[in-house]
Amino acid sequence: MILELNDLIKVKDVGPRDGLQMEKAVIPTEDKIKLINDLSKTGVHGIQVTSVVHPKAVPQLADAEIVMKNIERHENVKYSVLVPNVRGAERAVLMLADEWELMHSVTESHCRSNGNKTVDESLKEHEKVVKIAHENNVTVQGGMATALGCPFEGRVPFERVLYTAEAYYSMGIRHIGVADTIGCADPKLVYTTMKRLIEKLPDVEFSLHLHNTRGMALANILAGINAGVRYFDASIGGLGGCPYAPGATGNVATEDLVHMLDLMNLQSGVDLNQLLTISKDVERLVGHQLESTIHRAGPSYQVHAAPTKQEKIENQ
Amino acid sequence: MILELNDLIKVKDVGPRDGLQMEKAVIPTEDKIKLINDLSKTGVHGIQVTSVVHPKAVPQLADAEIVMKNIERHENVKYSVLVPNVRGAERAVLMLADEWELMHSVTESHCRSNGNKTVDESLKEHEKVVKIAHENNVTVQGGMATALGCPFEGRVPFERVLYTAEAYYSMGIRHIGVADTIGCADPKLVYTTMKRLIEKLPDVEFSLHLHNTRGMALANILAGINAGVRYFDASIGGLGGCPYAPGATGNVATEDLVHMLDLMNLQSGVDLNQLLTISKDVERLVGHQLESTIHRAGPSYQVHAAPTKQEKIENQ
Is the ipTM of this complex over 0.90? Predict the structure, then answer.
């Protein structure tokens, strides 16, 4: 198990897009802009700002252009937008994002359910998007949904994951995001999958997108670090959810991830206190309790005053 | 990172004592007995049944004798009671438990706050308890509260942990429970502490008692397994809490632990489906939502039918 590490662990906050998209309340545009501006100052490596989907499909993100235009951009932060297709790419070109994110399911049933395409048809569409990106000097992250488990097919053979990864590679993509779409992955699966992907495509930067649906997000991050992954998605407050498990938790919370890395003396460059201030704002914004454990319990080693009279509860 | 293992991972369910003790609702004695009888059939290695504390101090456990007398005992399950002092030992002798559990804080401030004794005074009291146990052929688990962090002192020097472990060893104890009392431990701390303890006292069986207060319970269990620990406490439904972080989650849920072990193909011998049936009963019993993620989200790879019309939400 890795105990010491000189590498920086990069963190991308996907709360503004992946998180807020799942909220019932429509979040005012100015609040989104403030959230992104606040996150920009925390030290995160990237922020998933928005998505260029059709406003009727996702009304929460109808303000994509306005948000991208009005945020304050920090030099060290990569601002990314999710680009689902060629029509979206045409809009995205005008947004001047640092990175476009593709989201493609590696399993046939989820690919068809989500985008009404086969895996190969979806990859062909994405190839056109990548071409537009590269013509406009925008880097692309190839996302692999259902890579660590599919709601319709269960466990996914590694060959299916590799098939999409190699397709992305042949398009010139050198950053691939591996997603546990429904939060079903375990540390062994994460470790073996990432180890094999890194061995197969050593010049690709792999990031992990993990949900805490079944309590394993931080264990899976630990496994990912051990396999060589140095880049993780997370969502402020743990925003987001899982459409297949209503009421279940969503993305791993950025503050939970940074808190664990801090305790382990692994460097992320992200300021936990700032995150905790932001998550208080976010809780007010969305109007319900956040899933972030650090938001609820506070960081470890908030030392208390010893009580003056004997406590009656045996604390074990 | 350990990927394959022939060892059995033992699980002790502490819900009936450590969990229910934190509940506001008084749980009827017959419901406790049913819970313990149900847990006995799941394949758990041990159940922490009750505690012989003064009924005025912990009214929830005033029925200790009645519960111990009326449960059905399974041959392969160890039924333990928490024994805080000599007076408790005298009661416990009559209960015919398989194991007595001692709970002693390794830090001075917590030891004084919890039991109004110094560490050495507390160890002296426990030595008398151990003597009574051994005279009655009962094995003893020496519990070490605050071993992985203290609410009043923060991080605890390893020497303080070793001091209590060696004191227990010299009393003839060969099973020591290491507790993350306030759920502040991280995987690196768990790994290094357990590795060092096992090296110092190789003929002791160490178990880990972890809380999920800051989302790291399963990551810490992973670290514990990597360090050589093969015995974990857990609590059905994630019952229990932390008096220093009201509203925060408590013990790692037995079903969350077993679910992760199952996915990783590590053997616990515990039946997840039975646990999930029991946690439904427990939720009714305590009258509030349980923290167990598997109770909320269901196990991984519950394969769904693919939807017939295109889903509008981009599931990432």
Answer: yes
